[in-house]
Amino acid sequence: MKILVIHGPNLNMLGRREPEVYGRTTLDEIDAALRKRATAAGATILTVQSNHEGALIDFLHAEGWDADGVIINPGALTHYGLALRDALAMLKAPIIEVHLSNVYRREPFRHTSVVAPVATGQIAGLGWRGYLLALEWLLEEKRA
Question: Which CATH architecture has domain 2-143?
Answer without folding.
Answer: 3-Layer(aba) Sandwich (3.40)
